[in-house]
Write a structure and sequence with these properties.
The chain is an alpha/beta fold. It folds into two domains: 2-179 and 231-264, Rossmann fold (3-Layer(aba) Sandwich); 198-229 and 265-301 and 316-337, UDP-galactose 4-epimerase, domain 1, CATH 3.90.25. The protein has helices spanning 11-22, 40-48, 62-72, 86-91, 93-113, 147-164, 198-206, 234-250, 269-280, 304-310, 318-331, and strands spanning 2-6, 26-30, 53-55, 76-79, 118-124, 169-175, 177-179, 213-216, 228-229, 231-233, 256-261, 267-268, 286-289, 298-299. The chain has a seven-stranded parallel beta sheet, sandwiched between helices. It is globular and about 55 Å long. It starts with a strand and ends in a 7-residue tail after the last helix. It binds uridine-diphosphate-N-acetylglucosamine.
Length: 338
Amino acid sequence: MRVLVTGGAGYIGSHTVVQLIAAGHEVVIVDSFVNASPSVLPRLEDLAGTSIETHSFDVRDVDKTSALFAEGRFDAVIHFAGLKAVGESSEIPLEYYDNNLGTTFSLLRAMQRHEVGTLVFSSSATVYGETTTVPMHEDLPTSATNPYGWTKVMQEQILSDAARAGGPQIALLRYFNPVGAHVSGTIGEDPQGTPNNLMPFIAQVAVGRRARLQVFGDDYPTPDGTALRDYIHVEDLAAGHVAALEHLGAHPEIDVRAWNLGTGQGSSVLEMVRAFEAASGRPVPHDVAPRRRGDLAVCYADPTRAESELGWRAQHTIERMCADTWRWQAANPQGYNA
Ligand code: UD1
């Protein structure tokens, strides 16, 4: 297939691009580069062993998007592009709604006009809102606790309505906590500013960029008191996109379907700290801080639907996730800006 990947220069997008090409698909990237570095592109081309057509603009630009589709002859779209920082989304909510919903409208219109029939969407376990039901399965009601989360809920709704009204076939992929990096250590997660998420923060402490980790809460009702999450290797996540794309192609009767991409296992913050110390051989000094607002005690996937329907299952262990993150971080202490 010839696949347009929006946000293809970002963390999850870049790893998926490498796997799509390895699986024999042709890839075109469009990325605004507001939260990605152009220096990822030569590295991607090295890994993929081919040049990759890349366009630098915001998919909200309807004219440019339409022109790209007029030339592109795409068979499918994977839509990663979007803003994703939970805290920031409460400070600048209109930016989040405008960006995440605007790209969705623009893409759906272009896909309709140019008869592109398949879309894989980058959703999140955040759509399960404040549910305390674990493992989380796809039929739980969706909801949110912050503007970022609402954009994902709304995007899922808009995409589902469009699909059911004869629009493209759509896969809603609900990611749990993506971590890790390509085994080469040449591409990985490179957050701008202070990382919001646990794994890049731990990695930056281990490499000496930050002094100490704050562990947000050790009084949760969990075995060691710290919160449990379903960490999934970004390479497993990328494989889930290829599987979803191929599944939709083989099942034209599907209009829209949600799949969790997680391992089904919960790991605590302290378990991650210890696993990272073991993988890196470096200490990760940490202090206990108050709980972070909006955090759930426990969040992990029921991944059985993806396994039975897509034939996909996460393969990589926490040890491997930490080892690969460390390889990337140690080789690129300042990320892509070194
Ligand atoms: C967060 C978002 C989620 C989003 C996902 C994207 C919130 C409430 N949720 O998930 O909507 O889809 O990122 O990857 O922000 N932790 C620390 N110290 C730190 C950072 C994190 O103790 O410096 C803890 C958190 O309290 C949490 C765990 O580590 O228990 C994982 O946090 P994080 O990586 O931010 O992911 P989520 O909060 O699960």
